[in-house]
Design brief:
Blueprint: E1 3-5, E2 17-19, E3 35-45, E4 48-53, E5 59-65, E6 68-74, E7 82-87, E8 93-94, H1 98-103, E9 113-119, E10 130-144, E11 147-157, E12 162-169, E13 178-183, E14 187-198
């Protein structure tokens, strides 16, 4: 796993807050092209890798109708899937993919803040939407496993379980090449994605 960052090219400035509810016309998923990507997820603590997953066997099946969510998530081929059937307080985006909602707009500017309702697939997940606020920090270049890309970095700080989470968003596949989450217990989760090929 390797990700290299170049010096930032855009510095965040103060901007307005944009609320992106589910169904907002400004979120246009048609910008995303079908593609196949390879994913690596690692967790380190005190400089040591304590978890490493390559995404093989991971599966998510979700049926979302308004605010009702019926879904099963299997983190890998060796772990049974977790089933969820819950009605939350308002229609929401799946937390793992909230960056896709932001990236599907044409609204990213330095310092602009995005507020989104999210849900999580877990038996212990609350039956309400969890609101998150992400700021566009800067536009930068990133090298993930030898693949260079120009990306917007959006991030959120001071949450109950993590100090900071940053997501790199690109205009071309794989769209989310890098994600970093700094947990309060000292763990650092790194998500990396590289494009294998585009689908016709």
């Amino acid at each position: 796993m390797c990700a290299t960052l170049l010096p930032s090219t855009v510095v965040a400035q103060a901007k307005d807050t944009v609320t992106l509810n589910v169904g907002d016309a400004r979120v246009d998923g048609r910008v995303y092209k079908p593609h196949l990507a390879a994913v690596t997820l690692s967790v380190t603590k005190d400089g040591k890798v304590i978890e490493l997953h390559d995404g093989s066997g991971r599966a998510i099946n979700a049926d979302v109708e308004g605010a009702r969510i019926r879904a099963t998530m299997r983190p890998n081929r060796d772990t049974p899937g977790n089933a969820t059937d819950v009605t939350i307080s308002t229609p929401a985006y799946m937390f793992s993919f909230l960056g896709a909602a932001i990236g599907a707009t044409s609204l990213i500017e330095p310092g602009r803040t995005f507020r989104l309702p999210t849900f999580d697939i877990s038996p212990a997940a609350p039956s309400k939407a969890d609101w998150h606020t992400y700021k566009a920090i800067r536009r930068d270049s990133v090298n993930v496993q030898g693949h260079w890309a120009k990306a917007w970095i959006v991030g959120e700080e001071e949450q109950p379980t993590y100090i900071k989470r940053e997501i790199w968003l690109t205009e071309e596949p794989p769209y989310l090449p890098l994600g970093l989450t700094y947990f309060r217990d000292g763990r650092v989760q790194r998500f990396e994605s590289i494009l294998l090929h585009n689908h016709p």
